[in-house]
Amino acid sequence: QKKRRAATARRQHLKSAMLQLAVTEIEKEAAAKEAEKQNYLAEHCPPLSLPGSMQELQELCKKLHAKIESVDEERYDTEVKLQKTNKELEDLSQKLFDLRGKFKRPPLRRVRMSADAMLRALLGSKHKVCMDLRANLKQVKKEDTEKEKDLRDVGDWRKNIEEKSGMEGRKKMFEAGE
């Protein structure tokens, strides 16, 4: 048990030492970021000196407005470049994924859709041809077979049942049997 206590105490000591080192590193990084920010602001944004006359203030506003426009243009250009590179990355990763060939096919669901609806979904407004597949089918006349003729000659089955029902029908069946 002494060994366990010593091991846990040592573990706790190491954890606390690591946490202290991490805290000092984070503080150093924050100080470095703040110093970098101050250097950047000192370099790119000189201290503002407000002139006394109205004309000089208007000129200063015009200069600041021109700087803002140029910065906005740069920001827009970089955003467009970023979007293009992201799109290229997605395309390349999709190509790489396809080349590997080890992708899982999603489970497909059955959808009842006519040929017209399918073409409309695929082609959009370009679809003008009506594909009624049943309209192009040939009409085939049914040939009368002997069995069907016999069935037609027998007549309606309900009439036969009615004739055989009751005592008279049974008498006819009995006489037919002899």
Automatic annotation (TrEMBL):
Gene Ontology process terms (BP): cardiac muscle contraction; skeletal muscle contraction
Superkingdom per UniProt: Eukaryota
Pfam families: Troponin (PF00992)
A GO CC annotation given for this chain: troponin complex
One of the record's GO molecular function terms: actin binding
Key words, A-Z: Acetylation, Actin-binding, Coiled coil, Muscle protein
Coiled-coil region: 23-102
UniProt cross-references to InterPro entries, sorted A to Z: Troponin, Troponin_I, Troponin_sf
The keyword Acetylation is annotated on this UniProt entry: yes
Protein family per UniProt: Belongs to the troponin I family.
Subunit note: Binds to actin and tropomyosin.
Function in brief: Troponin I is the inhibitory subunit of troponin, the thin filament regulatory complex which confers calcium-sensitivity to striated muscle actomyosin ATPase activity.
The protein's name: Troponin I, fast skeletal muscle
